[in-house]
Amino acid sequence: MIEIRGLYKNYITAQGSLTALSNINLNIKEGEIYGIIGPSGAGKSTMIRTLNLLEVPDRGSIMINGEEITALNKKELRERRKKIGMIFQHFNLLSSRTVRGNISFPMEIAGVPDAEREEKVEKLMELVGLSDRADHYPSELSGGQKQRVGIARALSNDPEILLSDEATSSLDPESTDSILKLLKKIRDELNLTIVLITHEMDVIKKVCDRVAVMEEGQIVEEGKVIDIFVNPQQPVTRRFIKTVIDYNLPEGLNITQKGRLVRVSFKGESTHKPLISLLIKKYNIDANILYGKIDEIQGIPFGTLILDLEGSDESIDEALEFIGQLGLAVEVLTDEQSNSI
Amino acid sequence: MNNLTQYSELIWNGTLETLYMVGVSLFFAVIIGLPLGILIVITRKDHIAPCQFIYRILDTIINIGRSIPFIILMVAIIPFTRKLVGSSIGTTAAIVPLAVAAIPFVGRVVESAMLEISPGVIEAARSMGATPLQIIMKVLLPEALPGLILGITLTAINLIGYSAMAGAIGGGGLGDIAIRYGYQRFRVTVMIATVVVLVLLVDIIQWIGNKIAAYYDHR
User: Fold this and answer.
1) How far apart are CA A100 and CA B36, in angstroms?
2) Count of CB atoms within 10 A of residue A55's CB?
């Protein structure tokens, strides 16, 4: 659906050249919800804006449905944009138009006949649950309702792709959840491809199928959300995961330094295996559970355990190897890490 | 009171002259100043039709236009006025310099009203595939409307002030009456009467402007 190859973008600022995107390569499949997460300044905002060329890359190729969009002329680009909806952190609704008027707006731009437009507006208001607010102005709506208008507006020209630029970042947790549910619903009903950027790992966890982690203009890690959660490779990814699954141990906790502190992550079927009792039986070590949680990502059970393993170095090594063989991800937390991560 | 009745026709005619000068010059100032303001907004860096060259030229013209004192402008463009309306004295002749002085003012007013629009709203329109013309007609103008109305109200009130100087070229109007009768002939009553009428005029215009702007303001 979307194929990005070797994308580069630099900004010239007063302080010199600033790299916003550096060798970005991505494949986004039809019908998936693809998340891009990164700290602020990582380039994710630039990244998503290149997909409808609100930002023009310096180099690289962006193919949408086999069409190279960087090669389009102005008129062709405007036509293409009509098939790419976009929603924004600050909603960007027209304050001078009602809910109805805002949803109708992109169709006016596209020259859709009046009757067809009115019919479509009614349908979309129903889809996002705002039929009773049709004649209200944006200033009379809550943040969540404004974003619903934004979504309805973005859908009005039947796009193939929906771009979501931090769409839930200025919403309260409850509205965030309802907007994320709505995004999932429209993906399922309309088979849209959704690309969203966020700095909240919770958003990724709740709706995304795959995720790319960006840092300093580069994609440092990419894959299925569940895999990233189970087995993160990069420090930045771990930091993000920690915002959702907080396995910080209280500082006051006195951990006996006889053994080793490990984090074990497991998913799917392996959540059912009696890991601890196996360890104790097979390797003559003690396993002290300091933290445990089972969660669900995209319907797959996913768990985290923090264990304090006590026993001889040798048997602990063997035990860790055994855990690895079971298909579980193990991470040894050093003394330093146990306090700082 | 007698004096006032005696001069009431004079003041009534002056009021009509003032309204005529201000109304017509405001009309032309908006007709020309509005596109000028739009042009200076959209040619800005990062706007919908960036063009440093046009922006700089317009910016300079507006600044020059606004820095020339009205009384000097009025005299300086006499040849232009004569060509345009056939005469350089009289009420109609005063309209030309008034409009010319108000054009750059309207340009700035339009500019500041349109710069208040969040760039995100314009970006949203671009993301939908809107043409620059569609963005002007469907985003910039309607979104800036309350600000535009207040700005035009402000221009009208400034024009009332400027029109007092139109007496210098025989333009008539309330300000002219105040100077000729009140100041030069010591008719204090006339002066007070004209000032009262001017205060009322300004008040009413501001009130109407505020009402209309509030009606369109949904921010």
Assistant:
1) 32
2) 16
Read off the DSSP letter of residue A271: G
CA B96 to chain A, closest CA, distance in angstroms equals 35
pLDDT tens digit sequence for B105-162: 999 999 999 999 999 999 999 999 999 999 999 999 999 999 999 999 999 999 998 9
| Domains of chain A with bracketed CATH | 2-234 (3.40.50.300), 260-339 (3.30.70.260)
Contact between A132 and A163 under an 8 Å Cβ cutoff? The reply is no
The partner residue sitting opposite A54, judged by closest CB among B121, B127, B218, is B127
What backbone torsions phi and psi does residue B48 show, to the nearest 5 degrees?
A: -80, -20
- Domains for chain B: give ranges and CATH numbers: 2-216 (1.10.3720.10)
Closest by Cβ to A96, choosing from B126, B134, B142: B142
Per-residue pLDDT band at A182 (split at 50, 70, 90): very high
Q: From the CA of B120, how many Å to the nearest CA of chain A? A: 5
Proportion of chain B above pLDDT 90, given as a percent: 70
Among candidates A54, A79, A97 on the partner chain, residue whose Cβ is nearest the Cβ of B123: A54
Question: Is the separation of the CB atoms in B122 and B167 below 8 Å?
Answer: no
ipTM > 0.90, yes or no: no
**DSSP run (H or E) holding A99:** helix A99-110
pTM for the model stands at 0.86
Gap between the Cα atoms of B19 and A251, Å rounded: 78
Distance from CA of B128 to the nearest CA of A (A): 5
